[in-house]
Amino acid sequence: MEHFSTLSGKATKLVKQNFPCYHFDAEVLIRNIQTMRERFEGRPEICYSVKSNPFMVKYAAEAAECVEVCSAGELQLCEEVGIAPSKIVVGGIYKSDEELDYIARKQYHRISVESLRELDILARAAARYMVVQKVLLRLSSGNQFGMREDELLEAADHPERYPYIRFCGIHYYSGTQKKKSSDIEKDLNFLRQVVERLRLPNPQIEYGPGIGFPALMEGSDWYNSLCEEIEQFFVPFCKEYFVTMEMGRAVTSDIGCYITKIVDIREREKDLFYIVNGGIHHISYYGQVNGRCCPHIRYLDEKNTGTTQVTICGELCTAHDIIAKKAVIPAGEIGDFLVFENVGAYSVTEARSLFLSHPLPAVLISDRDQTYAARNHNDTYKVNMSGNFD
Questions:
Q1: Which of 195, 207, 252, 380 is the S-S candidate for 344 at Cβ 3.0 to 4.6 Å?
Q2: DSSP 79
Q3: pTM score over 0.85
């Protein structure tokens, strides 16, 4: 899967006026969600993980059955852009008493509960507001998330303790960037065993398969075969149960790129370095360390020069600020714009954006034939200072 979003003439002009910036393509996101649904014969409900790219949640909510938030901030974000509570799955590893009180006042698509303590607080708040809440019990895969199996079964076996809670089923997630279909098949077999012991009528399963995405150039041949293998056992699973497939990286990775300019070129005895206005405080590729795995790179404007081997570095005062090490690309010059592909997932929020107080990049979004600035450059130095100088 190597689709790269294209930029219209207007988008290219905006990029050159607003670099460094991210560019996200709404049409590609919508198509990716539809493709995932079709791949599994329309069986699973698709739930968009807001954390993968919060800027695209409005478009994701139109294409997916629901969106998942993992913090009070993400919930507020969704409500601010007008997403109805009935389309929001409320998750998150920890919810404060105040947050649970707020959540209990409305009826969301579902609420994912992480612990018996959280369940008790939510149940009391729901009773206080007399609002029946649809709850998924999050099952731990052995990490810090969710409940042990015995805790989960104990709660579900005693619904009388929670008169304003309706147990719908299980929420399960066991990891990201999976490249082996056997890992997902193992998850599904485990879920079957637990659901059988759960004894709920028409149990629902929200499952984050963690399907990997080949964002970097090396080793991307596994992706299509992985999806084909998953289909063989995931489709029958969806016929047995009402399944919600939680999707983030797999549908957002290729919707975006990061664009910036070469601002300096430095030659050493054996090495050539391009310095760009930006760096690892803006770009975060899963699994990449010191630029050793090369991302897909192109120039914003077509280049007809011969290729050269170059290490592309950012503007941070750290030797670790390497975006691509010994990349083979057409020879460039100062002032050329470079496009780094497959940064639609997480880069915009996961990168170390406060380091050295550089401004946040702009965010451009294309929606069909329109491109607009969803965020202008924002100063970060104000976040990194106390502000008390009186």
A1: 252
A2: H
A3: yes
